[in-house]
């Protein structure tokens, strides 16, 4: 009987370690995106890696399509850097102003409808849904973001000097912000 207990314990530990290693987030580096090793990440390289490793992470309801709800949920989660399911004013400013530009004119206090000093998802969604925020990402206007549309738009935010490629400094600025979905 002792022999069977040891086998079950060993199998259980093996399954536990296997499950943990399969669920670990990928921590891709600049080199993983720079497929041709020229020290620049061009859009085609970025698209290939980003879509392979991150597109499905944006599909919050697992329906194999990225609609506006998936988009807003994921953007909210990305901006919520301390992962407390609330956006502070600092998180909102960092996410919205620094990375996305001016889509709405209301300041944080107006968007914070219940005046508690943080934005719940519903407040965030109510402020951004009527804007062109999602529409500008949905390039073919079909109400779904394709892998290419998502990757192109993320690439454009990372390529802040509009050179058509992402250098190591640009990658470093956005790496932890976007890739830890």
Rg measurement, Å: 20 Å
The span between the termini is: 46 Å
Q: Categorize the overall geometry.
A: globular
Strand order of the biggest β-sheet: 1-4
What are the segments in which pLDDT stays under 50 over at least 5 consecutive residues?
A: 1-25
Secondary structure tally, helices: 10
Q: How many distinct beta strands?
A: 4
Helix content: 55-70%
**Global mean pLDDT:** 79
CATH topology: Recoverin, domain 1
Largest sheet: 2 strands, antiparallel
Strand content: under 5%
**CATH top level class name:** Mainly Alpha
> Which structural category fits the helices and strands?
mainly alpha
By CATH, the architecture is named Orthogonal Bundle
Number of structurally distinct domains:
1
Topology:
Blueprint: H1 2-23, H2 30-33, E1 41-42, H3 43-54, H4 68-79, E2 87-88, H5 89-100, H6 108-111, E3 118-119, H7 121-128, H8 133-137, H9 147-158, E4 165-166, H10 168-179
Antiparallel strand pairs: 1-4, 2-3
Helix pairs in contact: 3-9
What would you say this structure looks like, in words?
Residues 1-25 have low confidence and may be disordered. Helix 3 crosses helix 9. This protein has a single domain (28-179), classed as Recoverin, domain 1 (Orthogonal Bundle). It has helices spanning 2-23, 30-33, 43-54, 68-79, 89-100, 108-111, 121-128, 133-137, 147-158, 168-179; strands spanning 41-42, 87-88, 118-119, 165-166. The strands form 2 sheets. It has a two-stranded antiparallel sheet with strand order 1-4. 57% of the residues lie in helices and 4% in strands. It has 10 helices and 4 strands. It is mainly α and 181 residues long. It starts with a helix and ends with a helix.
